[in-house]
Amino acid sequence: MQAVGYYLSLPFLYFISVLPFPLLYLLSDFCYLIIYYVVGYRKSVVRTNLRNSFPEKSEEELIKIEKAFFRYIVDFFLEMLKCLTISKESLLKRVSIENPEVVEELFNQGKSIIVSTGHYGNHEWVNQVLPFMLPFQIKTIYRVQHNAYFNQLFLDFRSKYGVEMIAMNEAYRKINTKEDKPYLLILANDQSAPADKAFWTTFLNQETSFFPGTEVFAHRFNVPVVYVCIKRVARGRYRAVFDMITTAPKEMPKGKILEEHAKKLERDIKQDPTPWMWSHKRWKYQKINGQYIDVNYRE
Question: Which stretches are transmembrane (predicted)?
Answer without folding.
Answer: 12-39
